[in-house]
Amino acid sequence: MTTLATLVAASFLTNPLQAAAEPSAKQPKQTIPAAKITAAPAEAPQAAAPELKPLGIGDAAPALQYDEWVKGDKVSSIEKGKVHVIEFWATWCGPCIAVMPHLSEIQKKFPEVVIVSVAASERGKDEATKIAKVKDFVTNKGDTMSYRIAYVGDRAKMSRPWMEAAGQNGIPCSFIVDKDSNIAWIGHPSNMDAPLAAVVAGTWNPADAKRELEEERAAMQAQRALSKTMRDARTSGDYGPAITALEAMIAKTPSAALKMQLMGILAGPAGNPAKAWVLGEEIFAENQTSPAMMNALAWMIVDPEGGVKEPNLDLAMKAAEAAVANSKATEGAMLDTLARVVFCKGDVDRAIELQKRALEKTPAGAMKESMQKTLDEYETSRKKA
Question: Mapping DSSP to helix (H, G, I), strand (E, B) and coil, where does residue 8 land?
């Protein structure tokens, strides 16, 4: 499940090329992409909707309703004695499309599970247009969507009693319903494999799932509060409240993700590099075998657009070297960062050599084009010297 450390992990000032970094057991898990749902504007004033009863782990599943059955054997309701997965998606949702093959694999692995993927957030001028769009989409996807598909346009049928009641505002989102027709798990379908296997086997502990979901929601609330504090700090220039908030979070959850974010503030806009580098040495000592974390640490220090006022190049060097040394294969992104550190330390010739190696290790694409521009920068610098 998502934790506070996970939610802030993407907040570092990291190398844009870092996405190719080798995953590590100590690398902070990135948040799984989801598309935010935005309701279409109402064509006319509508009566206030009735108050929703919150939906959580252990609660009875709401009714399964739809306006149009699109694919697969039709089911009219959630049947007691069977495990169901109710997944919410939309044709315009990139993360939903990305997870479709995985959902098909899950359905193949668990043929006894009734997976119903509900298109409940479609966009269009009228219902006929939206239904046609879903049908065309599903037809074109073929075996990529090897599970049941339904369409519903009325938010009162599925979106409100399921998604809104559960506090979910992003898709794709899945609900596992156990054999007693109770909600057993809520989350991104990419994380569903282990919970679903346990529910099918009858070994799932809903109390643990409920606690994890509550922790996730608390973490998201904390991150929203931190985001507001950071916006206020950027407006006012006073980073004191943001530093205090991060220090409190670190005291509770001493993750490298939170420490990295605090280090970036201290080394940059807060103007306290001495304190920042004490924290940086701590991050290094605790995570030096994680190539992704070391790459992020080094890049934060030498990022030309990062705003670090007094970069600790010695720390950046040992972090970048550790990133390269601990990669299973010498990743281009790691070498790119090491080249930047070497360049900042004044060894232009070695920086050029490393950048060329980075290019050799990187496939064609935007990443390689960016690396080439960096190499051009280094070579221009050598000519001017």
Answer: helix
DSSP string for residues in 101-154: HHHHHHHHH-TTSEEEEEE----SSSHHHHHHHHHHHHHHHGGGG-SEEEE---
User: pLDDT (tens digit, 9 = 90+) per residue, 269-320?
Assistant: 999 999 999 999 999 999 999 998 999 999 999 999 888 989 999 999 999 9
Please state the separation of Cα 253 from the chain's center in Å: 19
Residue pair 315/284 in contact (Cβ under 8 Å)? The answer is yes
CATH number of this structure's domain 213-384, picked from the four choices 2.40.440.10, 1.25.40.10, 3.40.710.10, 3.20.20.70: 1.25.40.10
Instruction: Report residue 144 as tokens.
Output: 């990529």
Cα(first)–Cα(last) distance of the chain, in Å?
Answer: 52
C-alpha torsion 155→221→23→247, nearest 10: 170
Condensed to tens digits (0 to 9), the pLDDT of residues 44-66 reads 444 555 678 889 999 999 999 99
Model pTM score: 0.56
Q: Report which of 53, 54, 1 is spatially closest to residue 29, judged by C-alpha positions.
A: 1
